[in-house]
Design goal:
Immunoglobulin-like, 2 helices, 36 strands
Length: 468
């Protein structure tokens, strides 16, 4: 009997460490850090170039231990940020078009309690081809399509029953549209991605026109013009004075509000904190700050008598716009009594620089557009002197300080307008149209700066923008 008891005690002593190990293993399994979700989804083949990588963990993490163990093939420069327990890696210049990206997180990352993750993970996704989105007229309707640069045909981005009158794309892929279905009202809608269900933000009032759609660079803020339409004595509808309205994500009640006083138009977001509009009453560009007040208070104003298209640098420090200069009788030798130059103004100081002053002779410059890095300015130019005069404006490029101007196209009978830079700054999309027949639709083209290659995307199209 004593021997039996001794054996039982010995067995308990031998089993005790095993039990402790089991309990520790269970405790570790419950407390250990692990990945609960990733995006882009594994094997997704249509990831947009600027889509971030997101890795969500089951508990708070030691952030340096995670960031140091994340890698991509090919290696891409980018920045790290955190949203609670989710690591967000944002590529600096976007994922390479058409490539397969391998993402790996090696074992050894730690929670805030210093518990390690013993197993790593890896997955891959495919980046969509570089695509240009534009509006295409089909059967009397405008449809939103996207077309790659590799020769494939354009494909619709939204269901066929939706007509889109304007659209705007944010860098993170958010899509804002003015859209309607047959016989229905026009809605301002926003989608996180083109395939998502729309969130309707605003219904354009009857007997009015909504236009001038602008979305903030990081998404979440939308502005537009509202133009009332009133019947004239002839019965035709006449546009009234426009006002600028805005919608802010996370607003108090999710409703739209009037951002600028009447008259105002041409909204443009300068990041998340300010909105630029044109005030024809003051003949000035006015910078507003989002506020509970209506209209929003003005931060600054810049004299601009013409009110034509303006281009802001990505950091919002400078703005470029055309201004008309009248010639004296003695100078009007060419048959023209004016010229238009592009002027750059620094927002903080008001310093004004004539960027077109290096042109040879009288010119008419318009349609400025800054490159994504702010170092280059694309624009349209025509010469006004008799020897170099052309019917249309040609596509030109110069440094942001006005230096090194160079002509890119030579199509004398057409205008180049609606210029849009690709996110990597390597290409320009634009519209060509016949200025002698402005009622006719133009065509969308793409110019590649490295090769000087010019490609026609589509006839009967307008409003090109690059898919992010």
């Amino acid at each position: 009997m004593l021997e039996l008891n001794r054996r039982r005690r010995t067995r308990r002593w031998l089993l005790a460490p095993v039990g402790i190990l089991i309990l520790l293993a269970v405790a570790y399994a419950l407390a250990a850090p692990r990945v609960v979700s990733v995006s882009p989804a594994p094997e997704d083949s249509q990831v947009e170039a600027l889509s971030p990588v997101r890795i969500t963990f089951n508990r708070p993490m030691s952030r340096p231990s995670v960031e140091s163990r994340l890698a991509t093939v090919p290696s891409i420069a980018g920045s790290y940020s955190w949203e609670a327990q989710t690591l967000v890696f944002t590529p600096e210049s976007g994922w390479p078009s058409g490539e397969t990206i391998q993402v790996s997180l090696t074992a050894g990352f730690q929670s805030r309690l210093f518990l390690p993750g013993l197993t790593g993970m890896s997955w891959q996704f495919g980046v969509s081809q570089v695509r240009v989105a534009y509006l295409l007229r089909q059967d009397g309707r405008s449809v939103l399509v996207a077309q790659p640069l590799t020769g494939e045909p354009a494909v619709p981005l939204l269901p066929p029953e939706i007509e889109v009158t304007e659209f705007a794309l944010a860098a993170d892929g958010q899509l804002a549209t003015f859209e309607r279905q047959a016989g229905g009202p026009t809605y301002l809608s926003i989608r996180q991605r083109t395939g998502d269900e729309p969130q309707r933000l605003y219904q354009c009032p009857t007997e009015s026109r909504c236009s001038g759609l602008a979305i903030s660079p990081s998404g979440g803020q939308v502005a537009w013009e509202l133009r009332p339409m009133t019947p004239a004595s002839s019965g035709a509808l006449v546009e009234g004075e426009p006002s600028v309205w805005a919608w802010l994500a996370g607003g108090q009640d999710g409703s739209s509000e009037q951002a600028a006083s009447v008259p105002s138009h041409s909204p443009h977001w300068l990041g998340q904190d300010s909105l630029a509009v044109y005030d024809p009453g003051q003949q000035a560009l006015v910078v507003l700050t989002p506020s509970g007040q209506q209209p929003w208070p003005a931060l600054a104003s810049i004299d601009n008598s013409l009110g034509e298209q303006a281009a802001w640098t990505p950091d919002g420090r400078f703005v470029v716009f055309p201004e008309v200069v009248l010639l004296s009788d003695e100078d009007a030798q060419s048959g023209f009594d004016f010229y238009s130059h592009l002027y750059r103004v620094e927002l903080g100081s008001g310093l004004r620089t004539d960027l077109s002053s290096q042109a040879a002779g009288l010119v008419e410059d318009a349609s400025p557009a800054f490159s994504p890095d702010g170092l280059w300015l694309a624009f349209a130019r025509k010469f006004l002197d008799a020897e170099a005069w052309t019917l249309g404006r040609q596509l030109w490029l110069m440094r942001a300080d006005g230096g090194a101007p160079q002509q890119l196209t030579e199509a004398a009978e057409v205008n180049h307008a609606q210029l849009a830079w690709s996110p990597d700054g390597r290409r320009l999309a634009f519209v060509r149209f016949d200025p002698s027949h402005p009622e006719q639709l133009g065509s969308v083209w793409v110019y590649t700066l490295e090769t000087s290659q010019l490609n026609l995307m589509s006839e009967g199209a307008f409003g090109p923008q690059w898919m992010p």
